[in-house]
């Protein structure tokens, strides 16, 4: 599309009258702002990211609160309502309400990224290989039922196996089953590698390739791959795939369940094994000019990372999406409200422009017996950012270093998907968050922590 002068909202709506029909006025205004950014009239690309649905089919309103859901593991789900409880995984009604809301929104997306974890958090004896396949099949059909024509790029989560986390580096019943279940969305070559190793790559649109990694192969609890240097040959495959993408002048979105880097809510723990994390960071740095975005799930919380190269220059934008399931364990001080998001990207260079985060206030939805999904925030607006390119995310992280930075309180409230504004993250908690945001490798992260306080910490290299 050619260059146009910035059009007024009225002029834009004349060209896109459908936007008036279903989208709330504010959504239209923001969409137009994103669309006309920098004076171009180029509709940004957009996709849904959903993750960690964790359907608990046993969920029901019971007189005995310990009997509401198997996923509470005997703890009383005292606030159970029609859309769930913070001690339970998702009832089907919650998942349906999320997809219904997505479906009624304009503008619609180009595709969906779905980063895994369909079965509930229950003891291994409650599940089996067949039940896990059934759960993945049920969620796949639910998504296809709501979005029959939309391309979907799914990834396997650590719960999408039985027993959970134990994914092998070779073909098995579950990889083979998902290669059948996801056949409507993926092409033959993608289905072949999916059936053998649980990973694949495919063009999402001309010039944009999705590379879906099976990061469960690098996950600490996975005993099947603990001693492998390159489980399922995925590192080798990833390098080859990125190399070909570079040669073909494609850009790449990396998607996976377990993220790269450090967990933001604890200290010095990588989400995958440290040695596999180091290797992944090395590959991502080497091909950072090809990769324009990373999209992960697994932590159930909303967080951002920025990959720096060896010189400390920001080179990749990384987004961890919060979960649909609201579950927490009894001992955890906070959880997340149910959530999904829409991401906007530049349709020419595929860099990330914005995220619109949606959520359901679970307590309110149960009280009103109605699921009013709302937008929680728009990332660029919330933090005054021009876009979500690596330089902007670095600017965001550095702004958190100031002790009086209220933007960090906002970030942490988003981290919990507005679960409880009274819970604050200070001192050590904040240092963990900021170091994890900026440093994905051992060298940088250790140095960041050694500063002990954010003011004197060397959060850059
Ligand atoms: Zn999960």
From TrEMBL:
Chief location: secreted
Single GO term (MF): sphingomyelin phosphodiesterase activity
Segments forming domain Sphingomyelin phosphodiesterase C-terminal: 313-452
Cofactor annotation: Zn(2+)
Binding positions (Zn(2+) 2): 117, 158, 257, 298
KW Glycoprotein (keyword) present: yes
Subcellular location: Secreted
Family: Belongs to the acid sphingomyelinase family.
Name of the featured protein: Acid sphingomyelinase-like phosphodiesterase
Gene this chain is encoded by: SMPDL3A
């Amino acid at each position: 599309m050619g260059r146009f002068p910035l059009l007024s909202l009225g002029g834009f709506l004349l060209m896109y009258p459908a936007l008036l029909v279903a989208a709330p006025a504010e959504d239209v205004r923001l969409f137009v702002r994103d669309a006309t950014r920098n004076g171009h009239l180029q509709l940004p690309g957009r996709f849904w990211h959903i993750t960690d649905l964790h359907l608990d089919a046993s969920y029901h309103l019971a007189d005995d609160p310990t009997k509401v859901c198997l996923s509470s593991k005997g703890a009383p789900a005292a606030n159970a309502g029609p859309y769930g409880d913070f001690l339970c995984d998702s009832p089907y009604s919650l998942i349906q309400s999320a997809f219904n809301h997505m479906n009624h929104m304009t503008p619609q997306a180009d595709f969906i990224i779905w980063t895994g974890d369909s079965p509930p958090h229950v003891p291994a004896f409650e599940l089996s290989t067949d039940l896990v396949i059934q759960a993945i099949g049920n969620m796949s059909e639910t998504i296809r039922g709501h979005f029959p024509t939309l391309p979907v790029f799914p990834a396997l989560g650590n719960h999408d196996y039985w027993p959970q986390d134990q994914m092998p580096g070779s073909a098995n019943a579950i990889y083979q089953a998902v290669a059948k279940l996801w056949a409507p969305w993926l092409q033959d070559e993608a289905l072949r590698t999916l059936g053998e190793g649980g990973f694949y790559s495919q063009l999402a649109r001309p010039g944009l390739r999705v590379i879906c990694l099976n990061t469960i192969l690098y996950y600490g609890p996975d005993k099947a791959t603990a001693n492998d240097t390159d489980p399922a040959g995925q590192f080798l495959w990833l390098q080859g795939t990125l190399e070909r993408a570079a040669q073909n002048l494609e850009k790449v979105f990396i998607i996976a369940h377990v993220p790269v880097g450090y967990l933001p809510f604890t200290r010095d723990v990588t989400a995958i094994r440290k040695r596999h994390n180091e290797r992944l960071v090395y590959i991502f740095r080497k091909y950072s000019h090809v990769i324009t975005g990373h999209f992960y799930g697994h932590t159930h919380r909303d967080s951002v990372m920025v990959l720096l190269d060896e010189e400390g220059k920001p080179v990749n934008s990384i987004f961890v999406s919060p979960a649909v399931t609201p579950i927490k364990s009894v001992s955890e001080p906070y959880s997340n409200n149910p959530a999904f998001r829409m991401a906007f990207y530049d349709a020419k260079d595929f860099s990330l422009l914005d995220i619109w985060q949606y959520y359901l206030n679970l307590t309110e939805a149960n009280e009103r017996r109605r699921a009013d999904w709302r937008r929680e925030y728009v990332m660029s607006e919330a933090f005054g950012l021009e876009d979500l390119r690596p330089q902007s995310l670095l600017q965001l992280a550095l702004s958190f270093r100031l002790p009086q930075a209220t933007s960090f309180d906002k970030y942490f409230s988003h981290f919990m998907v507005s679960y409880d504004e009274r819970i604050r993250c200070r001192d050590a908690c904040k240092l963990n968050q900021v170091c994890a945001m900026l440093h994905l490798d051992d060298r940088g992260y250790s140095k960041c922590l050694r500063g002990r306080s954010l003011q004197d910490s060397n959060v850059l290299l």
